[in-house]
Design a protein that fits this description.
- The complex is a heterodimer of chains A (44) and B (499).
- Chain A is mainly alpha-helical.
- Helix content of chain A is 68%, strand content 0%.
- The radius of gyration of chain A is 16 Å and the shape is rod-shaped.
- In chain B, 75% of the residues lie in helices and 0% in strands.
- Chain B is globular.
- Chain B is an all-alpha fold and 499 residues long.
- Chain B has one domain (10-495): Amino acid/polyamine transporter I (Up-down Bundle), CATH 1.20.1740.
- Chain B starts with 9 loop residues before the first helix and ends with a helix.
- Chain B has helices at 10-21, 24-28, 30-36, 43-68, 72-77, 84-114, 118-121, 125-136, 151-169, 172-182, 184-198, 203-211, 221-234, 241-246, 256-288, 300-312, 318-352, 356-370, 379-420, 429-456, 464-487, 491-495.
- Classes of the chains: A mainly alpha (44), B mainly alpha (499).
- Chain A binds chain B through residues 1-2, 4-9, 11-13, 15-17, 19-20, 23-24, 26-27, 30, 35-44, and chain B through 9-11, 39-41, 43, 47, 50, 204, 207-208, 210-213, 249-250, 252-254, 257-258, 260-261, 264-265, 267-268, 271, 275, 421-422, 424-425.
């Protein structure tokens, strides 16, 4: 497999899965810190 | 008015939205579009499109649903009463999309029952094509040659409608339970397909084709438009589904981060599906000694011709992986299909105060009967034409109007202020710029280019009569239907202050 394809695969994973993890992390942080505006906003 | 149901919690709501967004297109459209538009380099415009159009549009739809606690016609009607028409336009588009979407799932049921013979009918591309077009669809020579109604297709269609009707009529709590299975399970199955794919000889050829970057293509405006088109179409935006789903959440629900999670999850699945698809196609290309270009297809051709033929060439466990693939297709399709049914059912309940069961049953029976032409020998042609016109014009137009209505009439600043009260990620000036100018402009350009292309050459070379009657006719029917539903006055309209 070409190195450039491997690098783009890694970049794709980093951008998309990194973005998803970041957003879930924020939601999780707000729910554990009691910062979620309501119980309904907790991500469990 | 009936008391509005609510999702159990935010996680279930996000899962429902992801289930709706992730559908057949993630498997059969994204990998092809990526490979054709610069391979790995496509990731750059795709990611930018996600941030600048996908997430802002998702925030708008979530915001409209949550602030009005109603379907698309209520959500838009509350901004300006005439916009109720656009709301119904979106809802009726969802109805039409579901009519043919369920037919595609009907094909998948038929394939599932044919898997035991996959080694024969999928022995090569010619045999696989013959099996799909003649064995399953009994395809005629043109859109006006219906020949006859095929009972196996009708049975597949009926099965899909019974399944999604049963899920939706059981209420949001039960839908939540179904989602706990239909959302994560296909991802696990795709992972299994991916592991099988990358361990095959030749998978690197396919992955190179999918991921090796062609940076030159980034100078091409078409590549950027393809990225915006892909993001927009794959997120289930513009036909009121996200508005309906979010209307079942309390008014103080967090919005921007929920929209971002939904959009990212959808794109993650697409990327993963691309790896699973191209690793197997690479193996197939090497095993049959043909170039990648000749095994790369988009749409039903990929799912029902090329991929099964590739699976039939696997060294072991051919049937197992065949079942796995069609179960993935069905699971992916079913939660998108029931979200479309919910969109229409919820709107009928909001308008006429029908119970969930009544609204769902009326919609399901009507849609099933309306799907009969798709179960004839001309079905594929009808499906293709209707899909093209709805996607290229109707839902794009709805999304443009949503952006302009929120950005200019409701006021992007007012909207952002409302949203930011409970936001985990605040939105501001960038969001305002995107929804007032950038996103409508990009969507408008995509629509105009599609129209210019249409004028130069009729879509896929179909006869003008078919384009006018089937394509434009569907848009005409949706317009008339939306006009009638807007004009009819009900007690609920009065209660909601929409008269």
């Amino acid at each position: 497999m070409r190195i450039s394809a491997v690098i783009m695969g890694i970049i794709g994973v980093a951008l998309l899965y990194g973005g998803l993890t970041y957003c879930i992390g924020i939601a999780w942080y707000h729910s554990t810190q009691g910062k979620a505006s309501t119980q309904d906003n907790n991500i469990k | 008015m009936n008391e509005r149901e609510q999702w159990k919690n935010r996680s279930i709501f996000i899962m429902a939205a992801v289930g709706s967004a992730v559908g057949l297109g993630n498997i059969w459209r994204f990998p092809y579009i990526a490979a054709q538009n610069g391979g790995g380099a496509f990731m750059i415009p795709y990611f930018i499109a996600l941030l600048t159009a996908g997430i802002p549009l998702m925030i708008i739809e979530y915001g409209l649903g949550i602030r009005t606690q109603g379907s698309a016609f209520i959500a838009l009607g509350r901004i300006r009463k005439p916009l109720r028409f656009i709301g119904w336009f979106a809802i009726l588009s969802a109805l039409c999309i579901n009519i043919y979407y369920c037919m595609v799932l009907g094909w998948a049921w038929n394939f599932l029952f044919d898997i035991s013979d996959i080694s024969q009918w999928g022995s090569d591309l010619v045999a696989s094509k013959q099996h799909f077009f003649k064995g399953i669809l009994h395809l005629s020579d043109g859109p006006w040659q219906f020949e006859k109604l095929h009972w196996h297709l009708l049975l597949g269609l009926l099965t899909t409608w019974v399944v999604i009707w049963f899920i939706i009529k059981s209420g949001l709590l039960n839908i939540g339970k179904v989602l706990l299975f239909t959302v994560p399970f296909p991802a696990i199955l795709v992972l299994i397909l991916l592991v099988r794919g990358v361990t095959l000889d030749g998978s690197a050829v396919g992955l190179d084709y999918y991921l090796a970057p062609n940076w030159e293509r980034l100078h091409d405006a078409d590549v950027w438009l393809a990225a915006y088109g892909q993001i927009f179409f794959s997120l289930s935006l513009g036909f009121g589904t996200m508005i309906a789903y979010s209307s079942f959440m309390p008014k103080d629900t967090e919005l921007p981060n929920s929209a971002a999670i939904t959009s990212f999850a959808n794109c993650c699945f697409s990327f993963l599906a691309g790896l699973a698809v191209f690793s197997v196609l690479g193996y197939f290309a090497v095993a049959t000694n043909v170039p990648m270009e000749s095994v790369t297809e988009s749409g039903p051709g990929l799912a029902f011709i090329v991929y099964p033929a590739a699976l039939a060439k696997l060294p072991v466990w051919v049937n197992f992986f065949g079942y796995l693939f069609f179960v993935v297709l069905l699971l992916l399709g079913i939660d998108s299909a029931f979200s479309l049914l919910e969109t229409v059912g919820a709107a009928l309940s909001d308008k006429f105060a029908f119970s969930r069961t009544t609204a769902t049953t009326i919609t399901a029976i009507f849609s099933f009967i309306a799907g009969f032409p798709l179960a004839t020998s001309a079905g594929l042609y009808w499906l293709d034409i209707i899909d093209h016109f709805l996607m290229a014009y109707v839902i794009t137009l709805v999304a443009i109007i949503e952006c302009l209505a929120v950005g200019w009439i409701l006021g992007a600043k007012n909207f952002a202020r409302e949203v930011n009260r409970t936001a985990e990620i605040k939105i501001g000036a960038t969001f305002s710029f995107l929804i007032k100018f950038f996103t409508p402009l990009i969507l408008g350009v995509t629509m105009v280019l599609s129209f210019i292309k249409e004028i130069k050459t009729p879509y896929e070379g179909y006869p003008i009569s078919a384009i006018l009657v089937i394509g434009m006719g569907t848009i005409g029917l949706i317009t008339i239907g939306a006009g009638l539903l807007t004009a009819v006055k009900t007690k609920n309209d009065a209660d909601l202050g929409l008269l």
